Amino acid sequence: xxxxxxxxxxxxxxxxxxxxxxxxxxxxxxxxxxxxxxxxxxxxxxxxxxxxxxxxxxxxxxxxxxxxxxxxxxxxxxxxxxxxxxxxxxxxxxxxxxxxxxxxxxxxxxxxxxxxxxxxxxxxxxxxxxxxxxxxxxxxxxxxxxxxxxxxxxxxxxxxxxxxxxxxxxxxxxxxxxxxxxxxxxxxxxxxxxxxxxxxxxxxxxxxx
Length: 209
Prior knowledge:
By secondary structure, the chain is an alpha/beta fold.
């Protein structure tokens, strides 16, 4: 059986939401602001654009912070290698920004097809654009990547942690959930396994291939 992996990034492949950590570290938002951003109906893209437009930190300051403070989920590098050796497509679909996503993936030795918002300096802040979404919202985009692989005859293992991941999780063949996604999956009757160590995902694929 052929498999593909589609995964969120912030809070899924990382131990905490990197975008949120940056915006709190540099004084853009408070913890209460962050919590409100996860309310039903909130748009991750709009939240990121609003926050990063007010972020005065330089690229160097951002990279210095994330490389010092952010940690990958256990087993991430080995899981990336597992997918590469077995020629399993590994797609990272994120509402985050390339300014932190790609440096972390490089530092952690992770090889994957990644989709992040493109952050570019504008005035004293940053402009974040989501060209890959092609006008669709983030939940629809994540779902579309799962559909893409299923149309090619692959079963899809999905990893996520947030409300924007629910539609993709509901369509996937196997789900590993962390954070808020666990409660949403329970409420909607979507079967999942807790996401703690990505070695479990590799083991699942190995046993079901």
